[in-house]
Design a protein that fits this description.
Layout (H helix, E strand, L loop, with lengths): L2 H8 L6 H9 L20 E4 L2 E3 L2 H11 L6 E5 L5 H10 L4 E6 L2 H11 L10 E5 L12 E6 L8 H5 L1 E11 L4 E8 L2 E7 L12
Length: 207
């Protein structure tokens, strides 16, 4: 086990066996630009171009632990970027699960798809890539068990909540406070939990 993963475990960010295994098997170096491979094991965001980054490992670990993806889940990954989180999720949900990766920038979508393809998840159909507005989600493939959002929204996207199953979970950053918001959709209504101290690129509306 590498020092980065070990430190995330030691500091309580990685806890679940299957998520830890995903971090071990899905190498972050496969998702950073070629000239930045030496930064892949660093616990900070790395630029992937177009003003986008591959998220800090600590943040990804925290978000996945809160989202608690399971085998067989159908998950929407909004702002899929480098493809790292999509691939982590694909490993976690297994062959009976499905991940839909949604990205608004064509070049970044292709970069992410190429990266995820290194793990045969695209060819096998476990991950599908789409170009689109994160606020609108992916209605044609809804509903989803879980939704992961990698960019900070100015408000809770109502369409994403509608595309979530009951029960279901969504985790997303909210600005301006740069907090993470976990929403659980239940038969009795919505349960919300907020975690402060995170920074994200903004979630952009295309129209």
């Amino acid at each position: 086990m590498g020092p980065l993963i070990q430190s995330l475990i030691d500091n309580g960010y990685l806890k679940t066996k299957r998520i830890i295994k995903a971090f071990q098997e899905i190498k972050r170096k496969d998702f950073v630009p070629k000239g930045k491979i030496n930064q892949a094991q660093a616990n900070y965001p790395v630029s992937i171009g177009q003003g986008q980054t591959i998220s800090q490992p600590l943040t990804v670990a925290f978000m996945l632990e809160q989202l608690s993806p399971k085998k067989g889940d159908k998950i929407l990954d909004v702002g899929s970027g480098s493809g790292w989180v999509s691939a982590l999720l694909a490993y976690i949900v297994g062959k009976d699960g499905k991940v839909y990766a949604l990205e608004r920038i064509p070049q970044i979508k292709e970069f992410g798809k190429k990266n995820v393809s290194k793990y045969n998840f695209v060819k096998s159909g476990r991950v599908e890539f789409y170009l689109g507005d994160g606020y609108k989600g992916l209605k044609s493939k809804a509903p989803f068990d879980k939704i992961h959002v990698a960019a900070a929204a100015s408000e809770i996207p109502s369409l994403l909540i509608k595309q979530l199953k009951t029960p279901g979970k969504i985790i997303l950053p909210i600005k301006p406070e740069q907090a993470l918001l976990l929403i659980e959709k239940t038969k009795k209504g919505m349960k919300k939990k907020k975690f402060s101290g995170f920074r994200f690129v903004p979630l952009i509306k295309t129209t």
